[in-house]
Amino acid sequence: MVHSKKLYITTPIYYVNDAPHIGHLYTTLACDMIARFMRLNGIDVKFVTGTDAHGQKVEKAALAAGKSPQEFVDEVSLNFRNLATMMQFTHDDFIQTTQIRHIKAAQHLWQQLIKNDEIYLGAYSGWYAIRDEAYYQESELIDGKAPTGADVEWVTEPSYFFRLSKWQDKLLEFYNKNPDFIAPETRRNEVMRFVEGGLHDLSVSRTSFKWGIPVPNDPDHVMYVWLDALTNYITALGYPDQETSDFKDFWANSLHVVGKDILRFHAVYWPAFLMAADLPPPQRIFAHGWWTKDGEKISKSLGNTINPVHLVETYGRDAVRYFLLREVPFGNDGDFTDAALITRLNSDLANSYGNLVQRVLSFIAKTCGGVVPSPDKLVAADNALLSQASDLLPLLETEINKQALHKVVEHIWKLIAEANRYVDEQKPWSLKTTDQARMGTVLYVLADCIRQIAILTQPIVPEASARILDQLAVPSDQRTFAHLNAQLTPQISLPTPEGVFPRFTP
Ligand code: ME8
Q1: pLDDT above 50: residue 2
Q2: 457 CA distance to ligand 1 centroid (A)?
Q3: Alpha-carbon distance 423 to 355, whole Å?
Q4: Mind giving me the DSSP string for 193-219?
Q5: In the 8-state DSSP scheme, what is residue 493?
Q6: Where are the strands (E) in 97-152, listed by range?
């Protein structure tokens, strides 16, 4: 992906059985950070999120709410759209699987699979977990439940099957040829062990309920919700049109970001469906970890969800973004506590970043009448700081291409710490009486360093970064990574500085 000029990035499409929680926000946030970073780096990005409307789980939730499935999904889907709007996420499309474009795409894919003799009619007898919308072998059950803890029920019904078993070797060959297809590495190993263990043909239609996409030419069946849902990724690119749509340019550069709970569907079923329909698999699948609360997975069924709206109202969008992106290495699990969020907010945002900006800009305002001083001759310490800033981008590119989002944040905050150290060492306040020219140079170096930092933090804390760049009078069309080396214009007047990261006091 490093040399590619296009990126297609997707979140899972979330089930609309209940209100969104912080887990959903997390995946979309991670994608939003990547999308913003890539756009600033000159890459043409298509970022898609959406909702998964069909299946038994959603039908059950609609019934419980006393509503028709369509009415219910439109209502709940709106909560997911509103969350994305509230977070100011930068997705280019929001897909919902009841849309005509999607029904057409899913039915077309089905017909390709029929044409290629990859689907046959049979009868399913076995276990099904509605919560997971997944089939389980008897041997997988633990104490009569799915390995995820979900209840299972015995299902006997006529069903179409996808010939998954015959794809075992081809999938293994594909994983071996494409070592970066599944990340992180430990998850890749798990998937490979699973496939090596043998694959069974997969039931891909249901007859015992109606809330799904009708199987072409057999209206008694609706498609299995995962075949329907996975297809969203190509629907959003214009499939079945592969020639004149976004599919042509973007599919080869696709990145699906998902939680580890649904990796098997994405890394096993999805590439098999695609190859069986003569389509290439996506380029990469990254599975992140789970947020827990007091050690338990945050989920609707456990009733320990954290309301994202409440979080944002309490701490602000940027603080929530920063905490989720920084606190846990992307890929690992993490436990959510308000105390940890407040610590990050006060130490990394208010004390480190906020303080750097505040002390430099208010010093320029007070001592230089708000005018950026012209630099004199640069000394080793100045060049050291400036070159740390200008060396940063390649490092960040390497990390973002591996989806090491926390590393991107860490690298930038190391530079912030360096800049704070430079202020302490250079003591511009003492230079005011002893060497005004040197004081001007130090302030100029700092202001330009802050300019570069604020350009780089835009994908992480976009609102605060914009305010810092405004305070440095950086024109809005000079804020991309291509402008990192542009340098601040000396002698420009800056607006009155204002604090950007207030400390949080509970
Ligand atoms: O699985 N921590 O939808 P879903 C981190 N419709 N991430 C979490 C999380 C947590 N505690 N809880 C949820 C589905 N997530 C299907 C997907 S895609 C073709 C179909 C996030 O509503 C994480 O991304 O159950 C997880 O994979 C996803 O929400 C599951 O959302």
Answers
A1: no
A2: 27
A3: 11
A4: HHHHT----EE-EE-S---SPBPTT-T
A5: B
A6: 119-129, 134-136
CATH of domain 338-486: 1.10.730.10
As a whole number of angstroms, the distance between CA 258 and CA 271 comes to: 15
Which amino acid, one-letter code, is at 499?
G
Say how far apart CA 11 and CA 192 lie, in whole Å: 23
pLDDT digits (tens, 9 = 90+) for 210-255: 999 999 999 999 999 999 999 999 999 999 999 989 999 999 999 9
Q: What is the pTM of this model?
A: 0.97
Helical (H) or strand (E) element with 2: none
CATH 3.40.190.10 fits 6-289, yes or no: no
Q: Tell how far the Cα of 238 is from the centroid of ligand 1, in angstroms.
A: 24
Q: Which sign does the torsion angle of CA 475, 478, 479, 484 carry?
A: negative
Paired strand residues for 48: 10, 93
The pLDDT value recorded for residue 4 is: 56
Instruction: Give the residue extent of every domain in the chain.
Output: 6-289, 338-486
* % the chain with pLDDT above 70: 99
Ligand 1, atom nearest to 11 Cα: 24
CB distance 199 to 161 below 8 Å: no
Q: Tokens 């249901």, residue?
A: 206
492: its two tokens: 């420009």
In the chain, the N- to C-terminal Cα span, in Å, equals: 43
Phi, psi of 359 (to 5 degrees): -70, -35
> Hunting for tokens 């002390």 — which residue is that?
359
202 Cα–ligand 1 center, Å: 22
Single-letter residue type at 471: Q
> Among the atoms of ligand 1, which is closest to the Cα of residue 266?
19
Which residue spans within 260-346 are E strands per DSSP? 284-288, 291-293, 296-297, 334-335
Q: H or E element: which one contains 92?
A: none
pLDDT reading at 302 higher than 80:
no
Task: Confirm if 73 and 52 have CB atoms less than 8 A apart.
Answer: no
Query: What are φ and ψ of residue 384, in 5° steps?
Result: -65, -45
The response to whether residue 290 sits with its C-beta less than 6 Å from ligand 1 reads yes
- The amino acid that residue 111 corresponds to is Q
